[in-house]
Specification:
By secondary structure, chain A is an alpha/beta fold. Chain A has one domain: Thiamin diphosphate (ThDP)-binding fold, Pyr/PP domains (Rossmann fold). Chain A contains 11 helices and 11 strands. By secondary structure, chain B is α/β, with parallel strands linked by helices. The chains are: A alpha/beta, B alpha/beta. The structure holds thiamine diphosphate, iron/sulfur cluster (SF4) and magnesium ion (MG). Iron/sulfur cluster (SF4) binds next to loops of chain A.
Chain lengths: 318, 630
């Protein structure tokens, strides 16, 4: 009965009720088995469950396989430049508090070419939801080393193995002042993935979610190993953390209670060389938000503006 | 109001006044001595009386230079005239110097000529430090030897009769001196002093009024030369400001709500001013982490229906190129302001140059369509922002405004603009999007299309920098790419159709046509007028639209025996070694005009870091025309 507006129906039916198909556009062109597909489903589900009006929802991305994401959403989208999703998303949100803004970015997009913007985006702390699709490789341009590639990764730019230790995006994000939400999840755990994206979206601030991502095309070995490896994955649990259903919880061999206000512990977990922690590392609901600053003097009428301009001109009058 | 005991009788003067058409005065001091405040006040007094005025500040080269050095010179040049003044002119007629070193910094820049009168603070002659005394005596002798006419003025001594510490009041005493020297209204000068110190206590105002009167009387009784420059009060309300202030007021008047920038000289002061004004007009300055982020942010704002501007200078333009391409490709309206400085690289940050033209026209990889405007006066700095915002929205395109350090720092009065509600950007349109209109539904005739803005129901599309169809969908088809490129190009042609052929300054045909763009207009036209008075067959033409250009140029050029551009950017000299007709590098507009009009356009240009002076251009005209007569 949703979607119908019946004259004789006494109960209040919302004007619009969106089904998942209201958020779906075209056929996603990622490789079969690519982790990007799972995130797309999770995000579409979130939109549907939260009934986000598609016209008020904007997906901003950079360039890469992952950054194709907005093309598959029937919302507004901005598929911009490699590495530059953050500034654009900030501009979209700055004076449009009514818009729900998401950023989709890849590990090269965010942690290499866009690294400067990433650091500042964390500090600006605008209310946007950020999904870092970390497949540890450059997918789009065909297997070059990414800043998050584990040392020794065989790639087209390092055929004998990459030589530097990777950037750890969680650690880096936790190191920036005014950080307000940091979580990690994995594309192959749909329950956890969904719960994490949902928590991120609910957070009022810059919600940074690193999604561990499979790229079966270029990182097949690693992808397989990751999915099979339950030994080195721990779920962070807490009453203020990310809540998952029992079936999802049962997938984890290890669980660790972690208070997401404890940034010291959060950093410790992020730096553990032997363990991936999934869940909410850190949340600060009180961090100053740049989008609130951006919206603080909105809505001046033409008359008010003209008055201000004329007053300013008076200052230059001779 | 001044207390009665401050009133003075108009000082009796010893000499009769020489009537002038115009004059150039400089006040030079160590930074912090208030020379600029005195000069600005004097400029305002002149403007109020109806004189044409151009003032430009002389800024110290270093941040904390030691006092009494050439590096520490801070000051101001005021050019005032009976008619309109459009540029800073040639050499100064009068210099007021607070110490004997300061003028040397200006001599290096050829700011003075034989016969320039120098009014030098004489206190250094009796300074406790003998080396200062010597320095003073040497300088005075040297100035005389150079042909300057030196007047030793006891500024400190006179001020001390009025205030216990003369250090901070000398500038108002000098304002009084100039008020007398040029027969300005003492009442208007008093009003100006009250204005300047309006936030200070009454006693501060009174002291400064006394200093003003002190200088006024002293000059009347001691100077053996006095002037008058007749002025016609226009009866119109005037404002007086520099080009950056005009740009930022233009931003306000255009309804642009966001200025996204990264600090860079000489553009930054525009955003300082905006940051202050926006609080009351409803807008914000976003100081981004770099210029790339600054333009990306502005594009994000504009995409979301909030018009935005990004302001920068050459190095910033270099960083913005990729996003400029995106704005062109995805058709996002955007105003980009480039206040040019000396380049390439970090170049001459505070100096005047017009070297970004080609970079802006052709600097973005791929074929990036955009509209480029160049204001030629302070007033146009204001007007062109209002215009640019409207063009950007109507043509769904980036619009670039090319200003420069000359306009940024030059101060000129102009008729007070009357801002209108229709100049302001309308509020974001949140009405539902008409279902069947595609996000790039290009009109075949004009290339124009309407864009949906987030919030508009039914208008959802994904903007992309990839080649896209009218539906906004990514396409790898060559035919779709060709069509998109054609439509974006057609917008420029359609915009070009709205432009009128430029007006020729001087006769419609003749021996020589000078073509300029941007801040050089005043100097070029003044030189042309002077040359025409001597019978030279020379005219000039000034371009305000550089992409697309104003129509009819080829036809206008054909009416002149020779066409040459006058610009402040680099060109090889004909006489330089290794330079031939084929390898000569022309000034930037000359390149474009040669290509566009197939006319053999020559050029006169340099990168000396200074605004062009009328005399330089005048001499060039004479040389050109004489050469031809030989
Ligand atoms: C300025 C610029 N440099 C380089 C590229 C080429 N490029 C496109 S995507 C990409 C890397 C993408 O890697 P990542 O961000 O990890 O995304 P993925 O494809 O792995 O999802 C590169 C280098 C570009 N589009 N623009
Ligand atoms: S290359 Fe990798 S990241 Fe790109 S679509 Fe294929 S699997 Fe996904
Ligand atoms: Mg990647």
């Amino acid at each position: 009965m949703y979607g119908l507006k019946l004259d004789y129906c006494a109960i209040d039916v919302p004007d619009k009720y969106y089904t998942t198909s209201d958020y779906e556009k075209g056929t996603a062109r990622w490789c079969p088995g690519c982790g990007d597909h799972s995130v797309l489903s999770a995000v579409q589900r979130l939109c549907q469950e939260k009934q986000l009006p598609p016209e008020k929802t904007v997906f901003v991305s950079g360039i890469g396989c992952s950054s194709r994401f907005p093309h598959y959403m029937k919302t507004y989208g901005f598929h911009g430049l490699h590495g530059r999703a953050f500034p654009v998303a900030e501009g979209v949100k700055f004076r449009r508090p009514d818009l729900d803004v998401f950023v989709v970015t890849g590990d090269g997009d965010c942690c290499s070419i866009g690294a400067g913007h990433w650091i500042h985006a964390i500090r600006y702390n605008l209310n946007i939801t950020v999904l870092l699709f970390d497949n540890q490789i450059y997918g789009m341009t065909k297997k070059q080393t990414s800043p998050t590639s584990p040392i020794g990764t065989l790639s087209n730019t390092h055929p004998h193995g990459s030589v530097l230790p990777p950037i750890n995006p969680i650690q880096t994000t936790l190191g920036v002042s005014n950080v307000s939400f940091v979580a990690q999840t994995a594309d192959w755990m749909p329950g956890h993935l969904y719960a994490t994206i949902k928590a991120a979206h609910e957070h009022q601030g810059f919600s940074f979610v690193k999604v561990m991502m499979r790229c079966p095309k270029f990182m097949q070995e690693q992808a397989k190993a990751l999915v099979a490896d339950r030994e080195h994955i721990t779920m962070l649990t807490h009453e203020n953390g990310i809540q998952v259903d029992e079936a999802t919880a049962a997938l984890f061999m290890h669980k660790q209670d972690h208070d997401p206000t404890n940034i010291g512990k959060a950093r410790e977990y992020s730096e553990d060389p032997n363990m991936y922690y999934l869940g909410l590392y850190y949340q600060d609901k009180t961090a100053p938000r740049y989008d609130l600053y951006g919206a603080h003097n909105l809505g001046f009428t033409a008359a008010q503006k003209l008055e201000a301009i004329n007053a300013e001109l008076d200052r230059f009058a001779v | 109001m001044a207390s009665p005991d401050l009133r003075v009788e108009p000082a009796s003067t010893k000499v009769s006044r020489t009537i002038l058409r115009e004059h150039i005065v400089e006040i030079v001091s160590d930074s912090g001595e208030g020379a600029q405040k005195a000069g600005q006040s004097f400029g305002s007094v002149c403007a109020k009386m109806g004189n044409g005025v151009w003032t430009v500040e002389i800024i110290p080269a270093d941040i904390q230079p030691p006092p009494r050095t050439k590096e520490s010179v801070s000051g101001i040049r005021i050019r005032l005239g009976a008619g309109k003044i459009t540029n800073m002119g040639d050499e100064a007629d009068i210099v007021v110097a607070f110490n004997e070193i300061a003028p040397y910094a200006r001599i290096e820049q050829d700011a003075y000529k034989k016969g320039t009168k120098m009014l030098i603070e004489s206190m250094w002659a009796n300074h406790s430090d003998p080396s200062v005394q010597q320095s003073y005596a040497r300088a005075v002798e040297d100035y005389k030897a150079r042909g300057f006419v030196v007047y030793e003025v006891p500024m400190e001594e006179e001020c001390l009769k009025i205030v216990p510490d003369a250090k901070r009041g000398k500038n108002m005493w000098v304002l009084g001196l100039l008020t007398q020297l040029y027969n300005r209204s003492l009442e208007i000068a008093e009003e100006q002093v009250r204005m300047t110190f309006r936030k200070k206590s009454q006693s501060v105002i009174d002291i400064n009024l006394k200093l003003l009167h002190g200088g006024y009387e002293w000059a009347g009784q001691n100077l053996d030369f006095l002037y008058d420059i007749p002025a016609v009060e226009s009866g119109q309300d005037l404002v007086v400001m520099n080009g950056n202030e005009a740009l930022s007021l233009g931003v306000l008047a255009s309804g642009i709500e966001v200025c996204s920038m990264y600090p860079i000289t000489p553009a930054t002061s525009a955003s300082h001013h905006l940051a202050e004004c926006f609080e009351k007009a409803g807008g914000l300055v976003h100081q981004a982490e770099d210029e790339i982020a600054a333009i990306g942010f502005a594009i994000g704002c504009s995409y979301a229906g909030r018009p935005a501007v990004t302001i920068t200078s050459g190095p910033g333009i270099a960083l913005k190129t990729e996003f400029m391409g995106l704005a062109g490709m995805a058709e996002v309206p955007l105003v980009i302001i480039d206040v040019q400085r000396g380049g390439p690289s970090t170049g001459l940050p505070t100096k005047v140059e017009q070297s970004d033209l080609l970079a802006v026209l052709y600097g973005q990889p791929g074929d990036t369509t955009k509209i480029v405007l160049a204001p030629s006066s302070i007033e146009e700095c204001f007007q062109f922002v209002v215009l640019a915002r409207q063009i950007a929205e109507a043509f769904r395109t980036p619009v670039i405004i090319l200003s420069d350090a000359n306009l940024a720092t030059g101060v000129q009065p102009f008729t007070r603009p009357k801002p209108k509600a229709e100049w302001l950007a309308p509020p974001v349109d949140l009405s539902p999007w008409k279902k069947d209109i595609r996000p790039y539904e290009w009109d075949e005739q004009t290339g124009l299309s309407k864009r949906p803005v987030p919030g508009q129901e039914g208008g959802m599309f994904t903007l992309t920098g990839l080649n896209h169809s009218e539906e906004g969908r990514v396409s790898y088809l060559g035919t779709v790419n060709q069509h998109g490129a054609k439509m974006r190009s057609r917008k420029l042609a359609a915009f070009g159709r709205t432009l009128k052929p430029p007006q020729v300054h001087g006769d419609e045909s003749g021996d020589l046509l000078l073509v300029g763009w941007g801040s050089t207009r005043g100097a070029i036209e003044e030189a042309v007028d002077r040359a025409r008075e001597t019978g030279a067959s020379v005219s000039s033409l000034h371009l305000h639209f550089l992409n697309p250009m104003e129509p009819g140029l080829k036809e206008i050029f054909a009416r002149f025996k020779k066409v040459m551009t006058v610009e402040i950017n680099y060109s090889d000299d004909w006489n330089d070694p290794l330079i031939t007709r084929e390898n000569r590098r022309y000034a930037q507009l000359a390149w474009v005009l040669r290509a566009q009009t197939l006319t053999d356009v020559d050029c006169f240009s340099n990168v000396l870091g200074q605004p062009l002076r009328p005399r330089q251009i005048f001499e060039m005209i004479q040389e050109e025309l004489n050469l031809k007569n030989n």
